[in-house]
Description:
- The protein has 14 helices and 27 strands.
- The strands form five sheets. Strands 8, 9, 10, 13, 14, 23, 24, 25 and 26 form a nine-stranded mixed beta sheet that branches. Strands 1, 2, 3, 4, 5, 6 and 7 form a seven-stranded mixed beta sheet that branches. Strands 16-17-19-20-22-21-27 form a seven-stranded mixed beta sheet.
- It is an alpha/beta fold.
- The chain has two domains: 51-189, 3-Layer(aba) Sandwich (D-Maltodextrin-Binding Protein, domain 2); 193-495, 4-Layer Sandwich (Purple Acid Phosphatase, chain A, domain 2), CATH 3.60.21.
Amino acid sequence: MLKKYIALLFVFFSFSVFAENVTAQGLLPTESSQKSASDPVVSQIDGATPSRLVFALAAPYTTITDSVSFAALADFWTHGYTSANALPTDQIYIPEESEAQLERVFQSAPSGSIKIASPANLLSQVYQEDAWAILPFEALEPRYKVVQLDGQSPLSNTFDLNAWPLTAKTGGTPDMTEADWRQIPAANRDPEKLTTLMLTGVTALVRGTASYMDVWGPGYPATNIGDTLRAADILHVNNEVPFKTVCQQTAAELNQLRFCSKIAYFDLLTGIGTDVIELAGDHFQDFGDEAMVTTLALYQENGIPYYGGGKDLEEARKPLLFEHNQNRFAFIGCNAKEIGYSSATETSPGAAHCDFPYLIAQVKSLRAEGYLPIVTFQHIEYYNVSPNDQMREDFNAVAEAGAVIVSGSQSHIPMAFAISENAFIHYGLGNLFFDQAFFLQETSEATLDRHVFYAGRHIGTELLTIKFTNLALNRFMTESERQGVLERIFKESIVSVE
């Protein structure tokens, strides 16, 4: 009898150990694992490493709408297009592999207005049908416009993951709380791999702009936009005019369009957080070698690197290499007008003249070395939204050589774009700080181009639009002003999808 009792105890003990082991391995059901599959926590992959995936709402780049509410998007997902959500599209595409993840985000199956596409065909579907898309962050590219949700964007360098509603939770365990999830980083968006680069148009601190600065202080022109400029990880300024120790312009000089800036105005450049200076402008040589040398010394003393101009031709042609968050940039600039506008030689300072065979070889070499070439031109000042044939030829040549951004710094009006898979061309941005507010309607308008890079790749560009209110001061446009300018620009722009 005792032997039989001991044997029973042994069997019971062995089964208990077996049950504990297989339960720990997930082979037998536990109380928590028997919960409904519709439970929002249990529907995740129990036991796997927890992670979060960031998604973005995107549209064709020429879309005017900047922001919609997440409530409207969620209603569209569940019920399709209705007068209640009134999104500016009647269908939204999603990649086929993201459907289950997005169902968790919206906690429902998609409506008939949500279309499924393979990643390879999604972009063309969006453009062919004037549709929108919901994409994983890593699938973004420059031909999409990222639409904000309630004023937030995953392209921002101040992005708050915990406030972003288009985030899918994967993995984790049933007992994880919301506070636990808030500690989990995004698996597909690392802020240490993101860079925002702000390119700007013409800066010339002279004439009417200078008169306001003399009265209201050097920082006056940036009163309304300074915070946005400072927020860029890399801020580019195309400052065309030299600083002069004594700059008291005569009427004759101004009539001849010979310009200088007072050294006190340098505070504007440091005040807005300038990181990179372009020196390929027409007026850099206006007051000769002495003023150019003085100007170069100011940049060096203040730790602001420059390109496109220099103490001699070698320095003027030299690419400015800049690294931020693992993104490696090479800035190159030159003056594409007739030779008289660029004075740099082997022995004298000035702007670099564009030597296109040299420039194209330079771009190819830098791209092969792993840099992202950013080419800015001081090109023909063409007061038309659409570029002329010479501009197209020159901008396209460096884009085909491997430049990821080709930007026209010379234009006094905002001009059209040409966007392809590999390059973003903007023929002209307009004035950043210059006194042409009342010359033409278009010269009172400009864009600030905020290019976003992630993990060594250009993933998007945000167009900020500004309008001058006097000869020195600008502000961000109202919604109706912005719509008019964007419609005019987009009408003449080309986005290559094939």
